[in-house]
Amino acid sequence: MTTTASAERTEAALREYDENGYTIFRSVLDADLMGEAAEHVLWLQERHPELAGEDLGHTLLAKDPFWVRLVSDPRLLDIAETFVGPDIALFASHYISKPPFSGKRVLWHQDGAYWNLEPMNVMTMWLAVDESTPENGCLRVIPGSHKRSLEQLRERSDVPNVLGSEMDAEVDESLAHDLILSPGDVDVHHPNIVHGSNANTSPRRRCGLTIRYIPTSTKITGDEQPFASAMLLRGEPGVNVYQPRPVYRRGIDFPFEGREDCAAPVR
């Protein structure tokens, strides 16, 4: 993509984000890296059989060199910089891997309702690891709903769902848009946008990686500071305390292309 085309795409993305609360970037990461990500999910599930595919959360991230390599890919950070500026930190990240036939719903919610951030200057990047379609429970958004305030949450245990809660307000599902994504595609959405996903009743897995980027001027507050996966990714550190980047340990960590750059120096 030429510099002019890239600038035009960025301007269009910002307009769409401002108007609808989300925007999509296609083919951001290459097939080889997404293949590694798909294998990484299987590797995590083998080592953590106590966790469902939807529960591969941020507590695993800080000691996982491949996970950190993935969320700090320059192609993702360049997109993040468009929305949060040049000083970028990771707030949290989470694989949501819905298994075939039994993957759980994510009920309607707003991301920002779950977080203690001051100010609520944060973006969610949703990276497709698998093909994501209506049949296997793709992400669904209510365009324009980011312009409403954050709603209170209510617990929901009467139906199987990933979060155990939903927003305490009515949602007109007839307004929902299905986000159909291929591996390597990226959705960027606002912390206030109303979104969710249906159960996976298909024979195909549906896996995506959520990545929450903040400008380093946004403070992680309450019991979340220092947060288990907060990590400086680009620029100046700002107001938070961060985890150190993990060192690759041969025979222990997930092997991946370029792991030598994450290894401890030979003494």
List the helices and strands and how they pair.
Elements: H1 3-20, E1 22-25, H2 31-47, H3 65-71, H4 74-84, E2 88-98, E3 106-109, E4 117-118, E5 123-128, E6 139-141, E7 153-155, E8 165-167, E9 177-178, E10 186-189, E11 195-197, E12 206-215, E13 219-220, E14 231-234
Antiparallel strand pairs: 1-10, 2-12, 2-14, 3-11, 4-13, 5-10, 5-12, 6-9, 6-11, 7-8
* DSSP summary, beta strand count: 14
CATH topology: Jelly Rolls
User: What's the SSE pattern?
Assistant: HEHHHEEEEEEEEEEEEE
CATH architecture: Sandwich
Determine the strand fraction and express it as a percent band. Answer: 15-25%
The helix tally amounts to 4
Name the shape in a single word: globular
- Strand arrangement across the biggest beta sheet: 1-10-5-12-2-14
Radius of gyration: 18 Å
In the predicted model, the low-confidence regions spanning at least 5 consecutive residues are: none
Structural class: alpha+beta
Characterize the largest beta sheet: strand count, sense, and whether it forms a barrel.
6 strands, antiparallel
Task: Supply the CATH class.
Answer: Mainly Beta
Average pLDDT, rounded to a whole number, is: 94
Features of the shown structure:
single chain, 267 residues, alpha+beta, Jelly Rolls, six-stranded antiparallel beta sheet, four-stranded antiparallel beta sheet, 4 helices, globular
